[in-house]
Each structure stands twice: as C-alpha cells, then as structure tokens.
Amino acid sequence: MTWLEDSRTKLAATQLGPRAEQIGRVESIGDGIALVSGLPDVRLDELVRFDKGPFGFVQVLEPDRVGCVLLDDVDTIEAGDTVRGTGDVVRVPVGPALLGRVVDPLGRPLDGKGPIAAGELLPIERPAPAIIDRDAVTQPVQTGLVVFDTLFALGRGQRQLIIGDRAIGKTTVAVDTIINQRDSDIICVYVGVGQKSSSVRRAIDAILGQGAPERCIVVVASSASSPGLQWIAPFAGFTMAEYFRDRGQHALIVLDDLSKHAATHREIALLTRQSPGREAYPGDVFYVHARMLERAAKLSKEKGGGSLTALPIAETDAGNLSAYIPTNLISITDGQIVLDTKLFHEGQKPAVDVGTSVSRVGGKTQAHALRDAAKSVRLDYAQFLELEMFTRFGGMPDARVRDQLARGGRIRAILGQQQHAPLRLAEEVSLVLAVQSGLLDQLPLPLVAAFRLALREALDRGAADAVRLIETTGTLDDANRKLIIETITACLQTVAPQAAAP
Ligand SMILES: Nc1ncnc2c1ncn2[C@@H]1O[C@H](COP(=O)(O)OP(=O)(O)OP(=O)(O)O)[C@@H](O)[C@H]1O
Ligand SMILES: [Mg+2]
C-alpha cells in the first residue's frame, strides 16, 4: 500500500526531539537600521526576518551584535522585538516577465499592472565573470548621439561613466541611449537610486513612451525609499540584467546615480558605527562599486557571447572631478563622459567636454563608415576650441584661421542634439561627411538645425541604398559615399539656396 509506505518514509525523515534555534532581539532601531543581539551565527548579507513581518539584511558583524538594514520603511518594529536568521541572502525575481515593467529593487511591481510571474529568484550579489570567461569588446552600442558615436564610441560590455554637475543632462544622455535601442536587440535596465520621484517619472515616461518598452526594465528606489532598498537597487538591477547576458543576449544597464548610492552606503555605515574615512565614506566604498561594475562584461563564445554594458552616472560638485567618489568611479570604469555646466548654459547640449572625456575601449568597435568619416573631427575640433579662445580677444585672423573657425563652428553645431531625438548611424555618417567635406562651411550656423532635419528625409529619398548599406554592414563604399555627398548637396540647395551655390 503506497500511502502506508509514504507515511513510513515521512515518519522516518521526521526529526523528533529538541531543535536549537537562534532568536535575536532588537536593541535599537532607527533610520532604517536595527542593531540586533543574540544572533552569533548569522553571516554577512544574510536575510533576516523580524517576527512582525518585515525583512532586513545583515550589513555589519560585531562580536556581540549585528547591524541589520531594513528592506522596508516600517515603524512597527521596536526595541525588544524578535528576529531570526533565514540562512539565505537577498534574492530578486529575474526573467522576461519583468520586461516592460516598473519595479522596486525587490521586484515588486510599482506600475499597477498586476503581479509579476517571474520564474526564478537569484541573489543580488553574484560573482563577476572570471577572466577566462570574458572576451574583448568588439561590437558597438549605438547611442544615437552624434558626439558619442563619433568621438567616444561605446562598446558592448564596456563601462562608461557619465559624470557632471547637477541638472546638466546626465540622465537625458543615458535615457536617449536607451531610447535608441528601440531598433536594436539590446535589453535595457534603468535603475533610479535616490532620485526625486519627479525625475524618475520623467525618465520612465521617456523610456517607456519613446523607447521599446517590451525590452526595458525600470528599477526604482527613490529618495523616499528606505536606505536598504536604495542600497540594493543597483545590485538588483545587475542581477536582472545578467539574466539576459548569461543567455547570450545583450543588455545595457544605467545606474542613475552612484553618487546617491555612495551617500546611502555612507549613511548606513555611519548609522552602524563603522569608522569613517575620507569624506566620511567608509573604507569599502571603492570595493562596493568595483565589485558591482565588474559584473558588466562581454562573455566569451563558450559562455554564449552575451554582453552587459554599464552606464553608471555620477554627480560632481562645482565640476570637481577629483573628489573621492568621482575619482573612484573614473578609475573603475573604461572611460568617462564629462558634462560641463558652462557649455550647458551656453546652449551646447549634450554639454560634453571633449577635452576631458574619453572612451578607453569603445574606439575599436566603431562602425567603419563612421570611423573613416570622423578621422580628423576630434583634432579639428580641439584646434578650433583653442583658436576660438585665442581670437576671442580680437586680432585679425588670416584666411586659414577663418576657415578653421568656420569648420569648427559647424562641427560644434552637428555635435549638439535635441533630447530624445537619437539619430540613425547613416544620418550620423552623413552629417560628419557633410561637415568634413567642407559642404557646410558656407551654411549660416542658425540653418544647421534645419539642414539636419531635412537631411533625414533627403537620405531616405535620395540615398536609400547607401543608408541600407551603412545600417546593415556599418561600411560605406566609394559609390555610395558619392551618392550621399550628392544627396547632401541637393539637400543644402533646398535649405539655403545661396549658401550651397558654388
Ligand atoms: N540635449 C538636450 N536638449 C534639450 N534639453 C536638454 C538636453 N539635455 C538635457 N536637457 C534638459 O536639461 C534638464 C536637465 O536634464 P537632466 O535631468 O537629464 O539632468 P541631470 O544632470 O540628470 O539632473 P539631476 O542632477 O537632477 O539628475 C532637463 O530639463 C532636460 O530636459
Ligand atoms: Mg538625473
């Protein structure tokens, strides 16, 4: 009789007798941190459960007590409450069910679209891929922003920092990059940490409204969330993005922003009485960000060839790149895009400071068509900036200098771009070809915007073959280059007939 056998095996497996269990007590609680005594065997990062319901995780171990960070904002917990270890770490749901959703760092929906049927739960802290499992960064991520794609190309698997003062378009640059992935195969995860709810709302509207929502996940821990939720948010975002990386797909994660995350880390450290170091940050803040960003990688063929690109954002104070967190992040990442307040207020948007920005690995991934066209843009532009400063004090520039100034002004005009209006690779190549071949030198600067607008349609009408070639292979042959130049000339004729006249 099977039920009898069944009961017997169950009975044999049942342990009778006393069971030892550790029960901790809350000694003090406040600001989302609980100091708990009586749990000598819990481990670092272990998930603990308060008997009143909420969860927390262990962040600090001391000989006679542990510091737990609460994962929810709760007023119900008081000193004397009981706590138990769970023997597990914090886990978040992963999988395709999250796509198109706005969730909190524990994967709970925030968009009112009902529960998420995620198949799997994975720990928020996972080891970064080993060296042997990695491959060189060789494929590009098209950002759709001319200044990045031509001067600071981004590769799949790269970590590129976006850094600058308050409110000068850091989020916009990252969001535009996500929007541009509507035509690619890259899955985007936007993590908002410690942001104002209104800023997060704007980012969500842009991403889900203009990007491809079916390939985006938004993870939000706003400034009103508990420090615990804010602390785990970037880790949770990485775990959600890694799911796709490990299945041979390509993913991009935006961390907006790590300065706020560092501040939360400092807050937790000070509340748990760890000794403060430079700028009152605890000594391990570098390690926290380094081990997190190491998870961005391009995997080898044997591991499926997937990639995870990271765009961490950091805020500076009065453009000070040598503060603690900015220098840390600059040294961890593979390049930085520096945004400049002065440029932003002069109307140059995106306000990229070309002199201090750099992309250390992306250059190799740039599409050939763009690389050939943009060969000397950087040098011409740098020379222009110097000349501009020099001639600002008057003087009579000779014809050669005047030409250089005219060219530089046009380069600056094409590097600027409206927000949420990413360009296709073919348009970027054509713009750069137009300015480098000198066709725009006579075009009055105020008309450059109109020319850009007209060019899009003109290309589709007059050079469809060339557009297709660039979009599919990233290359351009002589015949098609000629076709594009002809299209540009015709387009100039319509925008500014007198300027285009030979
Ligand atoms: N290319 C652009 N064209 C027009 N407006 C822009 C552009 N980039 C940014 N802006 C505007 O500048 C403002 C600030 O942008 P954004 O919120 O991206 O800055 P931020 O550096 O992320 O700010 P915060 O420090 O608050 O996070 C926004 O109102 C945005 O619309
Ligand atoms: Mg922002």
Give me the CATH fold name of the largest domain.
Rossmann fold
Number of helices: 17
| Major beta sheet, strand line-up | 8-14-13-15-16-12-17-18
Which residues sit in consecutive blocks of at least 5 with pLDDT less than 50?
A: none
Largest sheet: 8 strands, mixed
Per the principal axes of the C-alpha atoms, what is the gross shape? elongated
Number of individual domains: 3
By CATH, the superfamily of the largest domain comes out as P-loop containing nucleotide triphosphate hydrolases
Give the secondary structure arrangement, pairings included:
Elements (H helix, E strand, L loop, with lengths): L1 H12 L10 E7 L2 E5 L8 E5 L4 E7 L3 E6 L11 E8 L1 E4 L7 E2 L16 E4 L16 E2 L4 H6 L2 E2 L5 E4 L5 H11 L5 E8 L3 H14 L5 E6 L5 H19 L4 E7 L1 H14 L13 H9 L13 E9 L8 H9 L2 E4 L2 H5 L12 E2 L8 H6 L3 H15 L7 H17 L9 H12 L11 H15 L1 H10 L4 H18 L1 H4 L2
Parallel strand pairs: 8-14, 12-16, 12-17, 13-14, 13-15, 15-16
Antiparallel strand pairs: 1-2, 1-6, 2-5, 3-4, 3-6, 4-5, 7-9, 10-11, 17-18
The structure holds adenosine-5'-triphosphate and magnesium ion.
Descriptive notes:
The protein is an alpha/beta fold and 502 residues long. The protein folds into 3 domains: 21-88, Beta Barrel (Elongation Factor Tu (Ef-tu), domain 3), CATH 2.40.30.20; 93-365, P-loop containing nucleotide triphosphate hydrolases (Rossmann fold), CATH 3.40.50.300; 371-500, Lysin (Up-down Bundle). The protein is 39% helix and 18% strand. It is built from 17 helices and 18 strands. The protein has helices at 2-13, 146-151, 170-180, 197-210, 227-245, 258-271, 285-293, 324-332, 341-345, 368-373, 377-391, 399-415, 425-436, 448-462, 464-473, 478-495, 497-500; strands at residues 24-30, 33-37, 46-50, 55-61, 65-70, 82-89, 91-94, 102-103, 120-123, 140-141, 154-155, 161-164, 186-193, 216-221, 250-256, 307-315, 335-338, 358-359. Strands 8-14-13-15-16-12-17-18 form an 8-stranded mixed sheet, sandwiched between helices. Strand 4 (55-61) and strand 5 form a beta hairpin. Helix 3 packs parallel to helix 4, helix 7 (285-293) packs parallel to helix 8 (324-332) and helix 13 (425-436) packs across helix 15 (464-473). The longest helix is centred in the middle third of the chain and has 19 residues, at 227-245. The protein is elongated and about 95 Å long. The model has no long low-confidence stretch (mean pLDDT 92). It binds adenosine-5'-triphosphate and magnesium ion.
